[in-house]
Amino acid sequence: MVSEDEIPTRTFRFPTPETRLCRLCSANEGVEYIFEQKEHYLASKIMAISSIKLWKGDGLSEFICADCDILLEKFYDFRIHCEATDVTLRAEFLQT
């Protein structure tokens, strides 16, 4: 049996809201706040294209870097395009 002293422990240091790290890649330069109103909240777009769940005050970084912002916009636009194409194709080819 393993004693309590033999069990490895980890200390987690959670970032404060002031930590200016990119929420997606951990970069620390050129970051912007993800809960600012742009076209849509960046946070909503992140959740739309990924399985990441985030909300203001969740204890993790609330920033995104410029590189991830560019990729996020491309991925989000691609998702919207795919969904629009799906609607068009279904309407055209699956008519009853």
From TrEMBL:
This is ZAD domain-containing protein. Keywords: Metal-binding, Zinc, Zinc-finger. The lineage of its organism: Eukaryota, Metazoa, Ecdysozoa, Arthropoda, Hexapoda. It comes from the Eukaryota. Zn(2+) binds at C22, C25, C65, C68. The keyword GTP-binding does not apply. SMART domains: zf-AD. The keyword Zinc applies. Residues 20-92 form the ZAD domain. One of its GO terms (cellular component) is nucleus. It comes from Timema bartmani. One of its GO terms (molecular function) is zinc ion binding.
